[in-house]
Every structure is written in structure tokens, then in C-alpha cells.
Amino acid sequence: MTEPLGAIAELRAALDTGAVSAVQLVDRSLARADALDTRLNAFLGLRAEGARADAARSDERRARGEVRSPLDGIPVAIKDNMVMQGEPTTCASRILEGFVSPYSSTLVEKLEAAGAVVVGRTNMDEFAMGSSTEHSVAGPSHNPWDPARAAGGSSGGSAAAVAAGIVPAAFGSDTGGSIRQPACFCGVVGMKPTYGRVSRWGLVAFASSLDQIGAFARSAAEVALLLEAVSGHDPRDSTSVPEPVPAWAEALDGDISGLTLGLPREYAADDGIDPGVLARVNDAVAELERAGAKVREVSLPHAHTAVATYYLIATAEASSNLARYDGVRYGRRAETAGGLTDMYVRTRSEGFGGEVKRRILLGTYVLSAGYYDAYYRKAQQVRTLLRRDFEEAFRSCDALVMPTSPEVAFALGSRTEDPLRMYLSDIFTVSANLAGVPGVSLPCGFSDGLPVGLQVLGPPLEEGRLLRIADAYQRRTDFHTHRPPESV
Amino acid sequence: MADVSREEVERIAALARLALTDAEADRAAAELEAILGYVELLESVDTEGVEPTRHVLPLATPMRDDRGVMSIDPELAVANAPELAGTAFVVPKVIEGEEEG
Q: Which residues from A are below 8 Å from B50, CB to CB?
């Protein structure tokens, strides 16, 4: 079988020496997808012809000495909620069946400007609502480490594609952990930058005050390159941050001496953490101490309220955002002999899956007359307290460290019948979205043969610090170089 | 414990333009009850006088120069519509019970 694709730096060196062409990289990526994806189900669509044509243009640029960036000619995948002109976008939903985007997202425009080659669209929970990719109209993605287990979600396809070496890099979106948790489950690095760092123009909206695009790769150094390419202010997204993008990759030198890491005591004391996960995370913290970081205990007093707050705010925003799917302007329209309202109802009832309907119902409920103050306004007030917790914690430390997930990848099918239990698997990730702070998950060992993730959170706009910590850890350990068994 | 009746679920579903079968409505009532029961833990948090966070960023309406910019072609913009008349969207009759003509 085709070998897994190597790291971006290796591929770039091979492109520079002419040992390989961008077209050959695309062919290797497609061949590997062809060999593995019937088992993994990481992709919802591959763009073989388009990617080969883009790669051929990259090869021509290189021949002319006009290489655009370190990503020129590198194959990447995007989650199927980021639009690309002339390509389908489905959000893993029946309701977007047949949709072909008339425009490109800022993310795709920036990737094209950098010369990266989009090879395919990855699987996800429908409209990014889920923690396992099981709520996909195309069925779940499988974890490359154990196909009976979840790849995580909602960006499970992106994480699985990188872990399996089909692409060296992929993009996802993170509303409550949808990059960090699948990165953790699949043993790769996944980073959600500060809210507003990457433009949401052309990202299909789930919960607009929480949604953020980020990147997957096997090392922090690669994630730094990817995020540099796609971050930055965008006048088309009024929530994009008007701040310059630092040269994150160049600044990585392995030095974290003088940094203070905070261990939130509320999570350390959480008896719901799998002992194997806790042991690996404690080992990782000890390794960071050996690298020169100081460690102290901090407190996030409202941590226990995060999941409840998140599910009220996220579903309220989702119920409003998803009102646009009505069978009028795009997507699949249900057959009906009735009038307009009947068409709306049939289109939405046939087009949305169970989890999306559940969240629309919950969101509609909490926004409805008589419940707004008790649920939605209350959740927004608690969100303020959660933000203040982070502000207070960052007065005494530079970054927070904790598990990404309280457990390793769970078995497919083990959570789908119990929505609340599925929601609670996001306990360590949702706070970062509510507070708008950046976070990264990186592999820090194995428990029962499955990857464990260390999560590092930082103050707003301090992505560079998080990448520095993750990179320093990866210079001292080799967990991120392990690959899942090829027999999978 | 939040008490969610099937009638309540049907009222909410109608607001959200969703139709549920009897079995789906029963199941949704039980699930919403469980989730709303869980979020009741927020009631124990003192939020007296706390400003709600609608957004983590201070949002202002950004201004730009009043200059025309090229936008998307109308034909392309509507190309995904299930039914079109020129560049206009066609929908089923709006007033229920009225004959077309």
C-alpha cells in the first residue's frame, strides 16, 4: 500500500529537490484514501481532478521559482462545512444534498493563496453537532487506532485523515471541542485559535458566538504553519479580530523556561477521569516541568457549569442559524402538494437528522416566551462568570493544562442512545469556546493502546505561547511520531 | 425536575417548523426533560447583577468606504434553488387553501 504522507517539512524538502512533484503527492494522497477510506469513512468527497489540476499549477510555479509559501503543493483536507467554489458542501446532512457552492470561504481563498492543494472534504457530525461523527448522514468515521471506536467529533474525519497519513494536514471547526477532542482520540495535534482569529466567512454557521476554525497536523510546528496561513482579519466577518498574525512557526525554539502552567484543581479532582488518562497527563505535566516550566494549582470555580451553559447557548444559536434551511434558496426541497408552510415542515423534517432536530427543539424551547430569562439569559450570565474564571486564572499562570477528554476514544454506538452522556464527554473542552480563548490538544501517550490528549489553554491571542509549549513537549517526546497500525 | 409534556414538544416543533411522529415526540419529551433537568444546576449559581455575555468580543458595526464592489452574479447566486423563474425563487402557494390561478 502507498506509504503514509510524511510531515509538511519533509514533503516540502522533497518538492524543493524535485524528488517528488505536487501532482505525485496528490496521487499518493488519493491512493491512500482509496486504500483506507472504505474502512475509515474519513471523507465525504475527494476532488481528484481539481486537486491534480491545482497541484499541476503548483508544480509550474515551483519550476518558475515562484513558490507561494511553505504550504505550496502540500495536500490538505477541509471539513465539509467550509465552502469552496464549484464544490459540494453537505455538512453531512441530507438537507444540503446537491448543494454546490457559488463562492469560496476565506479559509479556502487563503489556502489557495498559499498554494496548498485541497484534496477532499472530511466527514463530520451533521452541522458539527456531536462528539463522535456518528451523527453523519454518511455514517461514522472510524478511529484509525481501532475501527470499532469513535474518531471523535465533530471534526472526526479531519482527525482520522491526518492520523492515517492520508493528508499531512486538515482543517476543522471547533464550537465546543470539535477540533481538540477528535485530535485527542486520533493521536494528532488539533488547535482552536482565539475566537475571531480565523475568518468564519464561508464556514457554515452552527453557534456563531462559539464557532472557530482551526487546524490538525501531527506536530505543533506544522499547526503553527497552517494557522499562520489561514488567520487574520477579514472585513467580511465582523467578528474577526483586527490583530496582526505573528510568525508563530519561526518563533518555536523549544524554550519554555520561565512559563508558569496552571492546573485547575476542579479538573484534577474530577473522579470521572479515566485513571490511564490521568496518569499520562500527569506524566506530561512532569515532562513540561523538566523542560523548565513552573507548575501551580489554580481554580476555575464555575467549571462544573460549563456543559450546561454551553448546551443552552449553542442550541439557542443553532435553532436560529438553522432556520435558513427551508427548501427555498438551496438544498433539498421535499415533495409536497401543500402550501409554503407544509413545504418548510416537510423539507426540514426529512432533511435534518435526529441530533440536529433535538438541538433545534432544545434551542427553540430555551428561546421561547416564558423560558428565555430562566434558561438563555441565565446561561449568558454564567458565561460571564466562566470568562472571569479564566481572566482570574491567567493572572497567576501563563497557560492552563488538563486532559482534553476524560477518557480515550469510546466505542462506536456506546453513546448515541444517551444524548446527555454524549454532551458530558465535552466537559474539558467547552469552557474555552465560552470564554473565547485558544486551546490545543496534543498526544501525550497511550492508555489501553489508544491515544491520550493533553490540552493547553491560554489567554486570548496567545496562540504562540500554546504552540511553544506543545512544540517544546514534542521536542522531548515521540508520542506524536507513533502511527496507527497499518492493518487497520 | 423540568416537566416537558408531549403537547409542549409539539408546540415547540411547530415553532421550529418540524413535524414529529408520535413516537418521536414522546422520545423528544423524555430527552428534553433529561437535558433540562441537568441544566437546572445553573439555578444554584448566583448571577445577581451579572451582565450577560452575548459575545466574547466587544462588537461594533464596522464601517467601510461607500464604494461599489463586485458581488456574486445573480444567476450564480440562485443556481442552487430547487425551483426558479429567471433569477427569482419559486415557492408553493403562500395562502393555504386558496386555489392557484
A: 381, 384-385
CATH of B6-44, one of 1.10.20, 1.20.1260, 3.30.1360, 1.10.10: 1.10.20
Please state the rounded mean pLDDT for residues A426-430: 94
Give which of A412, A439, A384, A401 is closest to A177, Cα–Cα.
A439
Q: Find residue A215's DSSP bridge partners.
A: A171, A191
Rounded to whole angstroms, the Cα distance separating A119 from A97 reads 20
Q: Do B79 and A379 touch (CB under 8 A)?
A: no
Closest CB to B17: pick one of A209, A345, A434. Answer: A345
Interval A222-233 mean pLDDT:
98
Q: Is A405 a catalytic residue?
A: no
Interface of A with B in 404-443 (CB under 8 A): 419-420, 423, 434-436
Q: Provide the strand spans (E) within A420-480.
A: 439-447, 450-457
Report CB contact under 8 Å: A239, B59: yes
Domain residues for the domain of A138 are 8-259
The yes/no answer to whether this complex scores an ipTM above 0.90 is yes
Q: What is the pLDDT of residues A305-363, one digit of tens each?
A: 999 999 999 999 999 999 999 999 999 999 998 999 999 999 999 999 999 999 999 99
Rounded mean pLDDT of A30-48? 97
Contact A117, A74 (CB under 8 A): yes
CATH number, domain at A242?
A: 3.90.1300.10
Q: Which of B17, B56, B61 is opposite residue A436, by nearest beta carbon?
A: B56
Contact present, A215 and A138 (Cβ < 8 Å): no
Known catalytic residue at A178 = yes
Residues of chain B contacting residue A329, judged by C-beta atoms under 8 Å apart: 78, 80-81, 89
If 0-12 CB within 10 Å is exposed, 13-18 middle and 19+ buried, where does residue B38 land? middle
For residues A413-426, give the mean pLDDT.
88
